[in-house]
Amino acid sequence: MKKISDEEKKNLRKVSKSDFLENMSIMSSEEKIETDNLILKHFTTRFSREFYKEVITNIECTRFIQNSWIGEVKTFEDWNLRVDNYDNFWLIQNKTDKQIIGCIEVANNYLVTEVSCAQIIWFVKEDFSQETLLVEAIKAIVIEYFENREFFESEYDLMEIKINEKHPGAAAICEKAGFTKEGVLRNRCVDRKTGEKCNVEIWSILREDY
């Protein structure tokens, strides 16, 4: 993968020249991140309620999600309280038809010996099939958090995605987004639909890699 020069990094919000960005231009603001095909923005009450009904309560959408809180969300109030008080949830909206296709959560994962990491978790609707858009959204998040966000006043050193090994297409999405597979943790998660124990794959991208 070709590295981005310091001069190119200064121009990321205009037109990218790197293989990683694949000619995707990004405009960022406090309220939204905009790419060629997507707008990423924070939840409003209306979108929060719709997303809860269509995604969070649908086991087909959450069966492979790897986080500690999804099982604790029992009501809309539980869900709304979480997204309302946490500005690292990003709705993914398609510019073409204005439809919400999913969301990305960016969780502060750990801070050990001055190493800071953000974990990316995605949720998409059951009928979602345009993987290239999800890849575009993940790339936009990587740029935003490496360039504009801090973790306890420290720059993020890496970003990480943990996926259920049996999640269809998830590994390909990570790879296309520029992440590298680091390893496999055996029997570290379950299929929330079947209860089957599954392996977890860990994918990451370092600040110097992107």
List the helices and strands and how they pair.
Layout: H1 6-10, E1 27-28, E2 32-34, E3 38-41, H2 45-56, H3 59-62, H4 76-84, E4 89-94, E5 100-112, E6 115-124, H5 131-148, E7 150-151, E8 154-155, E9 158-164, H6 170-176, E10 180-190, E11 197-206
Parallel strand pairs: 6-9
Antiparallel strand pairs: 1-2, 2-3, 3-4, 4-5, 5-6, 7-8, 9-11, 10-11
Outline the structure in words.
Helices cover 26% and strands 33% of the residues. With 210 residues, it is an alpha+beta fold. The protein has a nine-stranded mixed sheet with strand order 1-2-3-4-5-6-9-11-10, with helices on both faces. The chain is globular. 31% of the residues are buried.
Biggest sheet statistics: 9 strands, mixed
How many helices? The count is 6
User: Gap between N and C termini, in Å?
Assistant: 8 Å
How would you sum up the global shape?
Answer: globular
User: Proportion of β residues?
Assistant: 25-35%
**Secondary structure tally: strands:** 11
Spatial ordering of strands, largest sheet: 1-2-3-4-5-6-9-11-10
Percent of residues in helices:
25-40%
Q: SSE order in H/E notation?
A: HEEEHHHEEEHEEEHEE
Could you provide a short overview of the structure?
It contains 6 helices and 11 strands. The chain is an alpha+beta fold.
